[in-house]
Recover the amino acids of this structure.
């Protein structure tokens, strides 16, 4: 049995090369805009606790009362948190719609962002809702697991038996945590790589597309398992290469922006406000330039990964093929190249 996940690696490269070369600056810039959002934001909530040793004055004496926090402080905190959540949700929505824009771009080989946005924003809204539900369920499950681990310590008041029960609970729940992470990752990954193309191909909802995809998974489990394994390795390799490329771009950008920043430092000693302004503006422009460079460098990587998934999907189930013409073209070119080489 041939594994499409292995056979389609070269075809995805040829398809990516055919789309992106020769370089069309307009196409690359528009794809870079899509790439900025297509991964979706990471909605994570984390916190840090710190403690300062306090001399209670002796055993048995109560700790000093915590100073009350004013209503104005809580209002500021609530405003900042609400703004962060709203920005995160907005980015998640834009990223969800951009998933469809990207699929349409590689399908039609033309990144008309406005056209594809108007055509697919409703499906993007459904994907946004699905991702939000998956995220809430994952975070909620993680919170429940953390609560089960910490509950013995809280109830037992930090005694040794309570700590022992907490360790036992942690060991028992490790497989649950691993399973939760795997299931959540697979659902999210398959939704992005396979369900979105099915939604585009057959104009379905998220759940409808999952219902259409699931029989192909049960009929060809080894093909999808091979795709998961190969994708992990490919993403790892491409991630390392992309990180090196971005680091190199950052070094190159540091040369001119570092010189300008140095001028700002010199100005700071003479005119403090002007020096600060130059340094701040330079830092912002450097960050913006690095963001643009990073997006452009990610374009071939993201396009390759999408072509790879589309090729595998079409090979597993021909009726779900979104790129039959490009598939035939790259395989004809590949066959011709192989014949010439022999």
């Amino acid at each position: 049995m041939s594994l499409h996940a292995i056979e389609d690696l070269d075809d995805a490269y040829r398809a990516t090369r055919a789309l992106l070369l020769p370089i069309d600056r307009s196409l690359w810039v528009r794809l870079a805009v899509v790439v900025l959002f297509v991964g979706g934001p990471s909605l994570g909530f984390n916190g840090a606790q710190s403690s300062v040793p306090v001399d209670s004055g002796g055993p048995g004496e109560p700790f000093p009362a915590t100073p009350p926090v004013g209503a104005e402080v809580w209002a500021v905190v609530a405003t900042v948190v609400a703004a962060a959540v709203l920005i995160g949700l907005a980015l998640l929505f834009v990223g969800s719609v951009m998933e469809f824009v990207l699929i349409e771009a590689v399908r039609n080989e033309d990144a008309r962002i406005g056209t594809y946005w108007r055509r697919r924003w409703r499906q993007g809204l459904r994907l946004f809702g699905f991702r939000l539900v998956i995220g809430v369920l994952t975070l909620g499950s993680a919170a429940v697991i953390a609560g089960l681990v910490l509950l013995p310590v809280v109830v037992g008041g930090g005694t040794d038996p309570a700590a022992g029960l907490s360790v036992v609970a942690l060991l028992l729940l490790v497989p649950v945590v691993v399973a939760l992470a795997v299931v959540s990752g697979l659902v999210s990954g398959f939704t992005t790589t396979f369900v979105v193309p099915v939604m585009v191909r057959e104009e379905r909802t998220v759940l409808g597309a999952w219902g259409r995809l699931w029989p192909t998974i049960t009929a060809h489990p080894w093909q999808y398992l091979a795709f998961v394994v190969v994708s992990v390795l490919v993403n790892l390799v491409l991630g390392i290469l992309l990180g090196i490329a971005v680091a190199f771009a950052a070094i190159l950008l540091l040369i001119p922006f570092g010189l300008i920043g140095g001028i700002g430092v010199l100005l700071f000693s003479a005119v403090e406000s002007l020096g600060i302004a130059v340094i701040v503006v330079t830092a912002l422009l450097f960050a913006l330039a690095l963001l643009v460079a990073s997006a452009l460098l990610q374009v071939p990587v993201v396009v390759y990964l999408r072509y790879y998934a589309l090729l595998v999907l079409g090979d597993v189930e021909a009726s779900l093929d979104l790129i039959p013409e490009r598939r035939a073209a790259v395989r004809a070119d590949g066959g011709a190249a192989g014949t010439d080489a022999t």
